[in-house]
Amino acid sequence: MTSEQSTPPQQQYAERSYRSPAALAGGGLLILLGLWLGGDALLRGVPQTKIMAAFALILGVPLVAAYTLRPLVRAGEDRLLVRNPFRTITLPWGAVDDLRAGFSAEVFTSGGKYQLWAVPVSLRQRKKANRQAARGANPRGRFGPQADAGPAPRAMADQTMDELREIKERAAHRESAKGEPVVRWAYGIIAPCVVGAVGLIVTIAL
């Protein structure tokens, strides 16, 4: 008798991650600036200044990181992971009702909605894309160097939401994509922010 070994099915679609490059760059610069100023105060300041600088860093660095470096959207075959400043939301695709990008990018479930901080909506970029699309629809715009340029590009947020909707549709009938949303608080961010804020208030009051 011969035995056959079954290999587990490989993931059909590659996992996709979305982050804001502008937020990453801005957050990194702000943290470096804060560390430079706070470090200078810790080295050269009077005792009260040193204490205030320490609490300001404990508050400021995690807070800036929460809003700039932490946000992430990761789309897998079965789940959408949304990492916002103070929460991480895991959404099986079966629990996702809709994805929209109005003034902000949002995912809707039967229990409510969650904002996608990692997918910023630029109204300026959207208007520019709409103008390019309008020019492309003009018959006169089909002549010249851009005649074969193809469809006009869309705003990045709208492209991202289209990709997420496509992944959701692929997972619509998979049993592994069903389940309930799971929300976890980012205590590693919240705790130092609370400590820093309380410390600053007490130091200023005294």
From TrEMBL:
Transmembrane helix as UniProt keyword: yes
InterPro entries from the UniProt entry: CFP-6_PH
Pfam families the UniProt entry points to: bPH_6
Domain Low molecular weight protein antigen 6 PH as annotated: residue spans: 70-109
Tagged with keyword Ribosomal protein: no
Keywords, comma-separated and alphabetical: Membrane, Transmembrane, Transmembrane helix
Transmembrane segments: 21-39, 51-69, 185-205
Region (Disordered): 129-156
Name used for this protein in its record: PH domain-containing protein
